[in-house]
Design goal:
By secondary structure, the chain is an alpha+beta fold. It is built from 19 helices and 10 strands. A hairpin with a 7-residue loop joins strand 3 and strand 4 (326-327). Helix 5 packs antiparallel against helix 6 (148-171) and helix 6 crosses helix 12. It is globular. Mean pLDDT is 94; it is low at 472-478.
Length: 478
Amino acid sequence: MQWFTADGYWLSRLIFQRALAAVYLVAFLSAALQFRALIGERGMLPVPELLRRTPWRAAPGLFRLHYSDRFFAVAAWTGCALSLALLAGLDGYVPLWAALVLWAAPWVLYLSIVQVGQVWYGFGWESLLLETGFLAVFLGNGDTAAPVLVLWLLRWLLFRVEFGAGLIKIRGDACWRRLTCLDFHHETQPMPGPLSWFFHHLPKPAHRVETAANHVTQLVVPFLLFTPQPVASVAAGLMAATQLWLVLSGNFAWLNWLTIALALSVIDWSPLAGPPPAQPASPLWYELLVIAVAALVLTLSHRPARNLISRRQVMNRSYDPLHLVNAYGAFGSISRVRLEVVVEGTDEPVIHEGTHWREYGFRGKPGDPRRLPRQFAPYHLRLDWMMWFAALSPAYARSWFGPFVERLLRGDRETLRLLRHNPFPEAPPAHVRARVFHYRYTDRHELRATGCWWHRTFVRDFMRPVARPVPLRPRGPA
């Protein structure tokens, strides 16, 4: 079938695949380094308990067959190894069928992880990685030209990501329509980056331009993805540039980088790449497989498409247990005030008015007012992100905050590894408490006078002091 392939997109496919492999690597590395404290057998939300109370169909995956911390670690590190192999281009040295299997393996592994990740994996970029990874399985390798149907499905996905995000803003908070949201967003976003302070202090007219440009990129430009080249390439380039702006202004895990990867798949690189290499015709079995997958994805797309035009549009929803086609969106409402949960401990056995409390330091979320936020994205600090949600409402932390505090009181090593600073290196504290503070950026005069990037004010108690419980039993074999 002559229409089945797009010969000029061989470099577009190659760039997209390598970018996706890099995102996969970061995702698996994040899982491997954080899972024991979050969802391990002795974690805050243990996977075995989840598996006991949920049916197989609710969360299909490898861990339905067997779970142990050792098995999870093997799966996560295997995902890292596969990602590195794909990043190095191993799929180009194997037959077409083997390349499909090679790309399917990390998708199956990461799907299995997300299915047991609970609230720690409830972010939109998890589904985005799975949906993108599923489509990438069928892109093929150098044994055939890039299939047109999969390239169009990638554009359809990019359209939903951008257009969905634009619609949820316009329909949501009035500040998006008034072009004033960025007066607050750089300060109140979940995890500011090292440049966020500077973005926040841009002149207000610059914030209006930022917001207006965002609306154009998300509400107008996505339709140009379906136009002929070079217009589609220009549209994708504008999206990639906007995402890079977001990379500079905050920490959103791999959301921006994965969106950039999708945009790169749209760009026609042939003027730079020269004539495409000679590629054999696609085998019939491959063509039939891609056609069947395209039909499946289009059939499943009706619910996300209806969500886009619905007045009750929702963000970041999966419509099937395999996360094949999903709804996306972000920041339908903007916080005007930044609240932070500060966790403190004391080694004094009796609490009194003069008790000395020492603060735990988190890696990414604001804590010490003198500490400039760091850049962590595309790496995902899951505990730090959930602490931001906890400050918005204690309901977000109901399932895990108590277990988190218990592990601080017991000096659990895996939990402490998630933190930047443990103020009790010799022995666990006798009591732990949590308090809510209002954080705001200092201005330039305050920064010069105090050396503080933040000014914070006590608001209320989040959790009253909790005493040290019975120590955990020794960790058994995984």
